[in-house]
Request: fold
Amino acid sequence: VVQLSLRFYGSTFGFIENAKDLKINGNFQVSFIAGQGYIIAEIIADLFIFSFIKSIIYEKKLIKNPCLYLTIIVYILNVLITATRSRLLNLFIYAFVLVFIMLYSRRKDSIQTNRTIWKTIFRTIPAFIILLIGFYFAGSLTGKIESYDTMGENLLNYCGMSVYNLNYYIVHSEEVLFTSSETFFGIHTLSGPYSFMRSFGFDIPEDVIALEYIQSKLVKGNVFTPLRRYYQDFGVLGIFLISTFLGYIYSSLINKSLNKPVSLLSILTAFFIFPMFFWSIEERFFMDVLLIIRTIYILMYFYIFSHLFFRKKTSYKYSYGYCVIRN
Reply:
């Protein structure tokens, strides 16, 4: 791969950048086996991260099995090489939420609740710093940082560009002909469910995944927060109803996970909660979580490998009572 990269693209990074473009433009498809292998690797790494966090918080010790750390490191390197920055953020969010759930379950009163929040923040600062470095490095592999002078500028643009673009869309929606003007009901939002329905022969237009680019003073971007898609498809009422629905779903999952902090439920909650953290950037619930076939595989693999890896039953006592998990 390295030799081919140097020969045809001038560098390994050039090869990665071109492969990324092929995937985005739809000219390159990952095989079913490769796709399943990537999902399995992701699930195993997430389960090992769960075991690592649990051992530190509840058992006050590090797991001595080197395979656990090697698996996590190899998966993170794989994420960096594929330049999938959103997955790198997802991984940090997953670990952050697990730490919070486990620490929160140990609190005894409202004072300890506030301390738990600050403990979670401080304990994840080193991981956050590593995340920023990895985020910047992953962007460099595909040339996404060439328009920025500093890492801070890159990060601020990634987090804030969508708000600027949303404002531009709302102000100029009647003046500018936006290219993603498909009028089929929910086509900009319901890409996951519609993709599933098309597999059964339903005549539904192709999803509008990539929106048009908006040029700012610094760079151009095509993310508008989820509100652009909700507003374009369902209007102001749709924004209210979808926001209420997502708030209810995720708050219910969090509350139930706090009652069972060391359980498959808490793992799944931490894994699927990333759309809430991406709320200021782009839509992720209907496009990723409700990508139905892939989500079914994820749930199946989580169930299989959690029972495969966690065999010994152990009970821990929390402020909410007893919680039993295969350890």
